[in-house]
Amino acid sequence: MTADFLILSLLTLVGAVAAVSLRNLVHCALALAAALAGLAGLYLHLQAQFVGFAQLLVYVGAVAILIVFAILLTRGSDSEPDGPPATRGWVPGAGLAAAAAGLVVAAILSSRALAPSLQSSPEAPVRAIGEQLMTRYVLALELIGILLTAALIGAVIIAMTLPSRRSAEHKPQSRTSIPDL
Amino acid sequence: MAEKLDQIFVQAKHELVRWLLCHVPGAWAEVLSALLSIATLLVAFAALFALTTLLERKGLGRIQNRYGPNRVGPFGLLQPVADGIKALTKEDVVPRAADQVVHFIAPLVLVVPVFLALAVLPVGRNMVVVDLDAGLLFFFAVGAATELSVFMAGWSSRNKYSLLGAMRAIAQMISYEVPLILSAVTVVMMAGSLSTVRIVEVQAGFSGWLPHWHVLTPWGLAGFLLFLIAAAAEANRCPFDLPEGESEIIAGYYIEYSGFKFALFFLGEYIGLFAVSGLAITLFLGGWTAPLPFVQWVPSYVWFFLKLLSLIAFFIWVRGTLPRLRMDQLMSFAWKFMLPLSLINLLAAGLWRFLPEGLTRWAFCSLLLAAAYIGLGRSLVQRRNLGRRTYRFAE
Q1: Which of B147, B149, B389 should be substituted to probe chain A, the one whose Cβ sees the most A Cβ atoms within 10 Å?
Q2: Domain layout of chain A by residue ranges
């Protein structure tokens, strides 16, 4: 329980709680980004440099921006919900969340991988991670690559206006009609 | 003598730490050493920022056939001081509708990561704040936070121009981050390491007169140019300064900032430019190594800052010369030209690594890159729609 661990876990927890309890959706997204940054700090605290920086690059740099964009493009970020932020089904929701968390904690505590790593701090240098990815886990890496490429092409096709569709979309429009976003 | 001059700052720090340890417990040695490095870095780059604002205004003035600032101090040298006092004494106006907390935090979220990114740049022999195993990854990871800061500034101001500017800035930063990282990856492939110190070490030494800099190879030259263009876009420099385009959206995401908060944005933008230029120097221009064998007696940090100042001069020159792009031109340039070319450059770097040394790999890699450049450029020009622009939503 060092000071940096306390600060980082406080940041993560406060960010996570704020992300689900704030009224404004953009504030929630920013609080989530803070929580994710705190998590990256915790990874760094555990000497996992690569995972920590990758977390920062992917979650704070890309996922948070994606969430923010989605909020701004779908519904007005200015409109705040009238009712309380938590819906009526929060009791079973909290129960389910507690059960899932308990299951994960129990699984981690009983796993055999935990026992030796408590004594020696496991250091995973970037080189070792790279070598493992290129030898033992190369199939998984390739599969993820294919999946991501497919997702990318799919996203481009969804976003692309084909020439035929575009002309059909534009011709019947009168000047007063508002195109839906 | 040259050796001593080269290590003078490193020695001075060691002496200072030793002297301070007489007064404080020994456990503080690491903290003191780190604090001293950080303080030096902050002061050096803040001073460079002050100098650059003056140089930029002078240089732009000369390009536009006027004098530039020349009233405060000799040759206008004290202009940055006057600017600083002005920024500090100005009223800090926050719009009533603005989101106060986010509006306040946004400049800090910009300034802190860009200064953090400087930590992994080796500015001289043995002169780096932290030599991280994954230094390059660290640089790009902390750089990612600046996008969030731009969004926070634009959204919290409750101003349509700032939101438009923020959207433009984020779209541009995300698009140009891809070629930026891909062109840096070629260097990682060659050096076999993500550590910036190691990357500089790989480029040390000479063959004949020529240094072993990455920029003097076909893939390195292509990578350097791609990196420089993407760096200009990342730093929102002209010709990619659409997010703050004065003529259309006034000042983009920081239109509602005044006084010292505006100065912080200004500082963050320039330090970001220094950081990414410093990374270009580290990756492609040999870091702190000397360009010719017989000038190696000049201290290493002098070379680093000389290279940095030349890159800054280049960016000022570009700003004074080129017009601003249009948003669709910017995007199609990033995705249809920069991205394929940087992917082909990755292939060229791989070929360079595995082909036998000699003229063949030079010819092969150069031909591949030249063919890709010409082919991509031709196809873009042919497909360019030069007719009347059609708008999807604006009409």
Answers
A1: B147
A2: 1-77, 124-170
How far apart CA B332 and CA B78 sit, in angstroms, is 43
B163 close to B203: Cβ distance less than 8 angstroms: no
Asked if A61 and B395 come within 8 Å (Cβ–Cβ), the reply is no
Task: Give average pLDDT by consecutive 10-residue segment, chain B, 395 residues.
Answer: 76 81 77 84 89 89 87 83 87 82 87 89 83 86 85 85 84 87 89 85 82 84 91 82 71 80 88 91 86 81 90 90 80 85 89 82 85 84 63 65
Distant-in-sequence, close-in-space partners of B306: CB < 8 Å, separation ≥ 6 = none
Q: Which CATH class is domain A1-77?
A: mainly alpha
Question: Under 8 Å CB-to-CB from A141, ≥6 apart: which residues?
Answer: A133, A134
Which ipTM did the prediction report?
0.77
> Residues of A with CB below 8 A from B138's CB?
49, 53
Of B44, B27, B46, residue with least CA distance to B36: B44
Bridge partners, residue B127, by sequence? B124
**C-alpha distance from A117 to closest chain B C-alpha (Å):** 21
Within-domain flag for B5 = no
Q: pLDDT tens digits for A73-124?
A: 776 555 555 555 556 677 888 889 899 999 999 888 887 666 655 555 555 5
Distances (CA, A) of B296 to B123, B286, B290: 15, 13, 5
Q: Considering all CA atoms of chain B, what is the largest pairwise distance in Å, rounded to the nearest integer?
A: 76
Expressed as residue numbers, the domain containing B231 is: 40-383
* Counted domains in chain B: 1
Contact status of A77 with chain B (Cβ, < 8 Å): yes
